[in-house]
């Protein structure tokens, strides 16, 4: 019975992650692994990426130097068996899906070899790929849709020779490491759909600069504009689409010209703020700090609404009263 040797080298694995960290090169460090699996890990931008290559034989996986400085790992087995390398990816210990963009190879044998590429669902990425003796290049991806959003892929050797010596390297993938970036707009308040993550709201009109202190799941801007949120779930970072927030009409208190004037007093205020609402319409009263964070929100239809501010720290705030027709803004000073 002949021995069949497959060799797989991960000289460099190139990533183009969602976070835009650029290329990551994985270089096998010479450590011998057993149990049919070899892994390589690189930490980049605080995220630990691990490539795992597992072969279908029950023998141990071993590293081998082909004499040119390229390290390969291989297995021994019967030429009558089907042998497969399964390649998967993790980020900080969590399996992540990815797009397979390309696989580079180099042949070190005098024989023609043949391979199939399939994804984790068994769908063909490429079939009957022929590798000529002594050649090098890129394995073709015949069906890109089957190489997109996959959790693993397989390189299956089809040639029943006693020795197959092909070095696979520079396996290029794009990890699909992206949190839920859905953002809803209710009135003038933006809210990220997924809770329990890390948030940083951005001003799209100011080169996506972070808005100081705007790190909650919800954000209510005080000015009209376009806003997005950067969301981090521990291993993945993504930025939502920009959403336009239109604050329709802003009028200072006391600038209306009729008897239905909305008024807020005193200013400066110490303990209680009063809002006069002569028509007793339903209004929303909100208080924002200088970071744009809402520190108080109530609804009232009372003719005179009294608001207790004893638990609000002293400082400068924006008072916003929203009616069905307009939004009124005024700077308020709270003093001890």
What report would you give on this structure?
With 336 residues, this protein is mostly beta strands. The protein has three domains: 3-175, Jelly Rolls; 183-245, Sandwich (Immunoglobulin-like); 250-334, Immunoglobulin-like, CATH 2.60.40.3080. The chain has strands at residues 3-8, 37-44, 47-55, 62-65, 71-78, 83-91, 94-95, 98-107, 113-119, 124-131, 136-139, 152-157, 166-175, 183-186, 189-192, 198-203, 209-210, 218-219, 225-232, 237-239, 243-245, 250-252, 263-265, 272-276, 283-288, 294-300, 304-308, 315-322, 327-334. The strands form seven sheets. Strands 2, 3, 6, 7, 9, 10 and 12 form a seven-stranded antiparallel sheet that branches. Strands 16, 17, 19, 20 and 21 form a five-stranded antiparallel sheet that branches. The protein has a five-stranded mixed sheet with strand order 22-29-28-25-26, with no helix packed on it. A hairpin with a 5-residue loop joins β25 (283-288) and β26. It is rod-shaped, with a radius of gyration of 31 Å. Residues 1-22, 73-78 and 255-259 have low confidence and may be disordered.
Descriptive keywords:
Immunoglobulin-like; 3 domains; seven-stranded antiparallel β-sheet; Jelly Rolls; rod-shaped; disordered N terminus; mainly beta
How would you concisely characterize the structure shown here?
Helix content is 0%, strand content 50%. The chain is mostly beta strands and 336 residues long.
SSE map:
Layout: E1 3-8, E2 37-44, E3 47-55, E4 62-65, E5 71-78, E6 83-91, E7 94-95, E8 98-107, E9 113-119, E10 124-131, E11 136-139, E12 152-157, E13 166-175, E14 183-186, E15 189-192, E16 198-203, E17 209-210, E18 218-219, E19 225-232, E20 237-239, E21 243-245, E22 250-252, E23 263-265, E24 272-276, E25 283-288, E26 294-300, E27 304-308, E28 315-322, E29 327-334
Parallel strand pairs: 22-29
Antiparallel strand pairs: 1-5, 2-3, 3-6, 4-5, 6-7, 6-12, 8-11, 8-13, 9-10, 9-12, 14-15, 15-18, 16-17, 16-19, 19-20, 19-21, 23-24, 24-27, 25-26, 25-28, 28-29
């Amino acid at each position: 019975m002949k021995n069949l040797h497959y060799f797989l080298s991960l000289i460099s694995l190139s990533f183009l992650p969602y976070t835009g960290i650029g290329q990551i090169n994985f270089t096998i460090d010479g450590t011998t692994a057993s149990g049919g699996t070899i892994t390589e890990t690189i930490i980049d931008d605080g995220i630990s990426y691990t490539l795992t290559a597992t072969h279908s034989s029950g023998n141990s996986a071993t590293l081998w130097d082909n004499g040119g400085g390229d390290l390969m790992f291989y297995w021994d087995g019967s030429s009558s068996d089907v042998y497969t390398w399964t390649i998967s990816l993790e980020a900080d210990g969590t399996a992540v899906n990815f797009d397979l963009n390309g696989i580079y190879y180099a042949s070190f044998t005098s024989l023609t070899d043949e391979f199939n590429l399939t994804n984790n669902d068994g769908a063909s990425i490429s079939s009957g790929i022929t590798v000529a003796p002594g050649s090098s290049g890129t394995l073709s991806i015949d069906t890109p849709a089957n190489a997109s959003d996959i959790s693993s892929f397989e390189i299956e050797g089809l040639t029943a020779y006693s020795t197959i010596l092909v070095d696979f390297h520079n396996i290029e993938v794009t990890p699909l490491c992206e949190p839920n970036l859905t953002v809803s707009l209710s009135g003038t308040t933006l809210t990220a759909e997924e809770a329990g993550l890390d948030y940083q709201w951005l001003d799209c009109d100011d080169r996506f600069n972070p808005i100081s202190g705007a790190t909650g799941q919800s954000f209510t801007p005080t000015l009209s504009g376009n806003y997005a949120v950067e969301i981090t779930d521990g291993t993945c970072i993504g930025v939502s689409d920009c959403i336009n927030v239109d604050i329709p009409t802003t009028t200072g208190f006391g600038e209306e010209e009729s008897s239905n004037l909305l008024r807020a007093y005193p200013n400066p205020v110490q303990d209680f703020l009063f809002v006069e609402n002569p028509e007793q319409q339903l209004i929303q009263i909100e208080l924002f700090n200088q970071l744009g964070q809402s520190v108080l929100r109530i609804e009232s239809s009372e003719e005179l609404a009294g608001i207790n501010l004893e638990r609000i720290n002293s400082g400068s705030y924006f008072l916003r009263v929203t009616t069905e027709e307009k939004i009124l803004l005024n700077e308020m000073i709270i003093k001890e």
